[in-house]
Design brief:
Two copies of one chain form a homodimer.
Chain A (H helix, E strand, L loop, with lengths): L3 E8 L4 H14 L13 H6 L2 E7 L7 E8 H4 L3 H9 L8 E7 L2 H6 L6 H9 L6 E6 L6 H13 L4 E4 L11 H19 L4 E3 L9 H11 L4 E3 L1 H4 L3 H6 L8 E3 L17 H11 L4 E5 L9 H12 L9 E5 L7 H8 L4 E3 L2 H4 L4 H15 L5
Parallel strand pairs in A: 5-6, 5-12, 6-7, 8-9, 9-10, 10-11
Antiparallel strand pairs in A: 1-3, 1-4, 2-3
Helix pairs in contact in A: 7-8, 7-16, 8-9, 12-13
Chain lengths: 378, 378
C-alpha cells in the first residue's frame, strides 16, 4: 500500500450526522467520483477512495466541523496538479466547504522539494542577516523602459532589497520585457557598485504559456536577482517546475493577482494559512505577496498572522519562506506590522514611496526606521 | 489612441457616492496601482488609467450598482494573461465586487481568435446534425488501462459522442497517459468501425507545466477526437495557445475542477455567464463542463441559463460553444434539462451510466430518449 496524506476540511454542517455524510461525499468526489455503491472492490476501494480519518466540531466561535480525509499517493501519480485536484477539485464548487490544512506524506515531499532558497536563502543573497527586508515595485504600466530603469536605480540607491516589476508590467510596447530586463538589471548593478548593497531586480515573468519558461531563463541569464509570477494566471505547476530545476536557481516571488476568490469568503476556498503558506512552499515559492491587514484590502490581523504561521511552520524539508505583505502600506504602519510579523517579513511598499520626490532618501529613511524597530534577534 | 474594451463590475455599495468611489478605486487598482494624485500626466493618465464610463443601480432584487470601466488595449500589450489581470487582478481580493461581463474591442478579438471548432465544428466532427450531444467519462482512477479502454469501447458501441477521461486520470502508474491514449483511441475506432458512429475519445491533458503541450500533441498524433484540460490548474493561456495553433487543430473541452471559488459566492469572483461563457470562448474552448442545476452542486437553473447565454451570445467572430452540464445527471433529469438548454447542449452523464450492467445498451437507450425529446429545429 502506498503512503497516504490527508486534508482537513471545514464544513458548515449543523450536526455531526450531516457533517459525516458531507465528509464521506468529499472522500468520493475527490477520488473516484462515482456512486459509492459501484466503487470497484479491492484496489480502488481500499487504496484510491478517500478515507474519513477524523471528524470533530470546530471551535465554538466558528461553528461547523473539521473533517480529515486521507488520500493515496497512488492517486497523485507524481503529478503536482493532480495533487491539487485531489485536495480541492470538484469540491471547490461546493459552498460551506473550505480547505483548512494539508498533512504531508514522504512521497509528497519528494514530488515537491519546495523552495530552493527560502527565507534564509533570500537573506543570504541580499546580505540582510537580521531584521525585515524591504521590497518595492516599479510602476505604473505606461512608463518607458528608461523611466522604469531610473526608478529602479533610485530604489537601489536607497537600499531597497528587492525591486520588483509591477504585476501589470509584462511585454507592453512601452517597455518590452527583454529591454526592461536588461535596463533594470544594469540600473541595480550600477547602484550596488556605488553603495555596496546587494539589491536585486525582480522581473515579472507572468506571460504566454509558450514563453513562460523562456522568460524565466532570460531573467536568469540577464542577471536578475529573482523572478515574480502569478500562479493563478500562469498555472500552479510553473513555480514548482522552476524551483526544482537546478539549472534555474533563482528565488521566486509569487503574486496574488486574480486569486482573490480562493480566500476572501470564509466559508469557501482555502484558509489563508494553506493558500499563502503551505501551497506556496509546495510550489517552491520563496516569498509570497499578499494584502496586509488594515490596507486597501480586507484581510484581518489574525488572517495575516496565520499566513506568517503557514510560511514558517515546520514542514520538514520544505524551507520556511517570507511573507511579503503589501497593498496600502505606509511608513506609519511599520510599528504595528512589526508586532505581527516580527523580523520575519518583507515589507512591500510601493505607492507610498513613489509619492516622495527624493526616492532614494525616502528608501534610506525607511531602512533606518525599520532597523530602529527591529527586534534584537533575527 | 488605442481602442478600449470595458468590464462591467457589480458592486455592493449602498449609495451612488460610495459606488462611484469604489469604481474609481477599481479603475486605479486594475491599471496604474498608485495613488491617483501621482499618476503621471499625459499618456499614462489619458490612456492607461482605467476610465469609469457608466454607473447605474443594479436591479432592485439584487441591489448594489453596476460600474462599467474601460481599459486601453495598450495595457494588454498582446498578452492574454495581462488581459485577465486587468479584468480582475488585485480587485479579485475585494469583497462585494464581481465581474459581470466584458465588452470586447477589435484588438481583443485579434488576440483571442476564439474556438477553432465551436459548437458547429463539434457537431460536424461527431456527425450530430441536430439535437443534444452526449458525453460520458471513463473512471475511476485506479482502473487499469485495459479496464478503461473496455469502458471506452462500450460507451462508443452505445453511441456516446464524446468519451472523456475522468479529470483525475493523468499519468498514474495504473494507467500511464501514453498507454491509455493509444488503447482508448483504438477502442473507439474499433467500435466506430462496427457502428458507423463518429464517437471521439477525449484524453485529459492536464499535467506538468513542462509537458502540457507535449501531451496535447501526443493526443493529436494518436488520433484523439478532442482534448480536455482544467484551466484553473494548468493556467489560463494554455487553451488559447492550442486553439490558435493551426498545427494542433483539435477541439478543446474545459473542466471546472479547482475553479469553484471563482463563481460560487454571488458577491465575489465572476458571473457564471462570464466565467463559463465569455472567458471560455476567449480561451478558445469548444465545450465547457460545469455543474448542472439540481445535481450534486448548488448552481441554480437561472445560473445555468446564463451560462448557456454566455456560450451562445453574439461575440462577433468568437464562435458559439457548447455548455456541457454534468455532476449528478440522471435519465430522469433530461426532460427538465431540455427545457433549459434546448438542443444546444452536451449532456455529461457519468456515474448514472456506469451503474448499468449493459453499458452499451444504456447508452443507446439514452440516445433514443434524448432524440425523442429533441426539439424539431436544431
Amino acid at each position: 500500500m502506498a503512503s497516504r496524506f490527508s486534508v482537513s476540511y471545514w464544513l458548515d454542517a449543523t450536526g455531526e450526522k450531516e457533517a459525516r455524510a458531507r465528509a464521506l461525499d468529499i472522500a468520493v468526489e475527490q477520488t473516484v467520483e462515482i456512486p459509492r455503491e459501484i466503487v470497484p472492490r479491492g484496489y480502488v476501494e481500499d487504496e484510491i477512495l478517500g478515507r474519513l480519518e477524523n471528524l470533530k466540531s470546530a471551535d465554538a466561535e466558528r461553528g461547523g466541523f473539521l473533517a480529515e480525509i486521507s488520500y493515496s499517493e497512488d492517486d497523485v501519480g507524481g503529478d503536482f496538479l493532480q495533487l491539487l485536484n485531489i485536495v480541492f477539485g470538484n469540491s471547490s464548487i461546493k459552498t460551506g466547504t473550505r480547505v483548512e490544512s494539508l498533512q504531508l506524506s514522504d512521497g509528497l515531499r519528494k514530488l515537491c522539494p519546495g523552495p530552493r532558497f527560502g527565507a534564509a536563502g533570500l537573506r543570504a543573497r541580499t546580505e540582510v542577516n537580521s531584521g525585515p527586508l524591504i521590497m518595492s515595485a516599479i510602476k505604473p504600466v505606461g512608463l518607458s523602459t528608461s523611466e522604469l530603469a531610473d526608478l529602479t536605480h533610485r530604489f537601489a540607491l536607497g537600499g531597497t532589497h528587492l525591486i520588483k516589476d509591477d504585476h501589470g508590467l509584462v511585454d507592453q510596447p512601452t517597455s518590452p520585457y527583454p529591454e526592461r530586463l536588461k535596463a533594470c538589471v544594469e540600473a541595480v548593478a550600477e547602484a550596488n557598485a556605488s553603495t555596496g548593497f546587494q539589491c536585486a531586480y525582480v522581473p515579472n515573468i507572468t506571460g504566454p504559456a509558450s514563453q513562460i519558461f523562456e522568460r524565466a531563463f532570460l531573467a536568469k541569464e540577464a542577471g536578475a536577482g529573482a523572478v515574480m509570477l502569478a500562479p493563478s494566471l500562469v498555472g500552479f505547476d510553473v513555480s514548482r517546475t522552476l524551483a526544482a530545476d537546478p539549472g534555474f536557481c533563482l528565488p521566486i516571488i509569487s503574486h496574488p493577482t486574480f486569486a482573490g476568490a480562493n480566500v476572501i469568503t470564509p466559508t469557501t476556498g482555502f484558509s489563508h494559512r494553506f493558500y499563502f503558506g503551505t501551497l506556496q512552499r509546495l510550489m517552491g515559492v520563496d516569498a509570497v505577496v499578499f494584502p496586509n491587514f488594515g490596507g486597501r484590502f480586507g484581510f484581518s490581523r489574525e488572517e495575516c498572522l496565520s499566513i506568517l504561521h503557514g510560511c514558517t511552520e515546520d514542514l520538514g524539508e520544505l524551507k520556511p519562506i517570507f511573507p511579503a505583505p503589501g497593498g496600502g502600506m505606509t511608513f506609519e504602519r511599520i510599528a504595528d506590522m512589526q508586532q505581527v510579523y516580527g523580523n520575519h517579513v518583507i515589507y512591500l511598499i510601493g505607492g507610498a514611496l513613489l509619492r516622495e520626490s527624493d526616492l532614494a532618501s525616502a528608501c534610506r529613511a525607511l531602512r533606518a526606521r525599520i532597523a530602529d524597530l527591529s527586534l534584537p534577534a533575527n
